[in-house]
Amino acid sequence: MPERITRKIVEIRYENGSEIHEQFDPLSILFEMGPFLIKNARAIREKYATSYRNVLVSASALVRNTQEQKMRAYVGFNNTPYQGAQKHCAEMKSFGQADHDGYRRHDAVIVVGPTDTNMIEGITGIATPTLYPCDSCLDLLDDATVVVTVGAEEDVYEAHTGAELRHQRYVLQGATKRKRQELLANQSAEAIHDPNFIHWTGGRAVYETLVSHFDVNSLEDLRLARAEAAVAVLQDITNF
Ligand SMILES: [Zn+2]
């Protein structure tokens, strides 16, 4: 559990950074602390986020300084007070501050935002159930960053890997309007309903069983395999 909580960070210490030999798994922390981080991000959003369009967003980036073996959650909020103001997304702020402080391993990010699909379509052009990171913010993700986009008021969410979201952007950008509509219609546009995130917390055991069977050769493969497993568990969580 957290060692230190401020407006900007939640600090979590861990021992043994030798991930490939497997003692520490940052995504176990995502399962354990997710509901707490959501609650924290929601409070920050309510207090500090500003947007002339009333699109209030906050983010909690779960990041590591692998040399010092420290993990933190950096909390950020969006700030676009008037039309034409420079864009400051919640994700940019969280990852920006994290990188600046030497926390450059981007393990996961929780983004808290609207669930009004009309509003979301107005922002991104795609009527998704939750608000995904914008194009600039997608570039801050690794392929193996787990992205959980959560409702600000409702306990609903979707989970993706950074690779999935970037692939989706690539496909949509290259597509004609008709193809785009086709692709979007095929997407399962359902968010997971998990009141009080009860299932989320229970997902940890399922996730850990799943990843205990992995046999991979590189840290990169391990991270990606873990991310995909975490997303699969989160997306299917109400069935456990
Ligand atoms: Zn953004």
Characterization of the model:
The longest helix has 23 residues, at 26-48. An eight-stranded mixed β-sheet has the order 1-2-5-4-7-8-9-10. It has a two-stranded parallel sheet with strand order 3-6. The chain has helices spanning 26-48, 90-100, 117-124, 135-138, 162-174, 177-186, 198-211, 219-235, and strands spanning 4-5, 9-13, 50-51, 58-65, 70-77, 79-80, 105-113, 146-151, 156-161, 192-193. The protein is built from eight helices and ten strands. Helix content is 42%, strand content 21%. The protein is globular and about 45 Å long. Helix 1 runs antiparallel to helix 7 (198-211) and helix 7 (198-211) packs antiparallel against helix 8 (219-235). It has one domain (4-239): Cytidine Deaminase, domain 2, CATH 3.40.140.10. A hairpin with a 3-residue loop joins strand 1 and strand 2. It is α+β, with helices and mostly antiparallel strands and 240 residues long. The chain starts with a strand and ends in a 5-residue tail after the last helix.
Please describe the structure with a list of short key phrases separated by commas or semicolons:
alpha+beta; 8-stranded mixed β-sheet; 21% strand; binds zinc ion; 240 residues; two-stranded parallel ribbon; Cytidine Deaminase, domain 2; 10 strands; single chain
Please render the helix and strand layout as text:
Layout: E1 4-5, E2 9-13, H1 26-48, E3 50-51, E4 58-65, E5 70-77, E6 79-80, H2 90-100, E7 105-113, H3 117-124, H4 135-138, E8 146-151, E9 156-161, H5 162-174, H6 177-186, E10 192-193, H7 198-211, H8 219-235
Helix pairs in contact: 1-7, 7-8
This protein binds zinc ion (ZN).
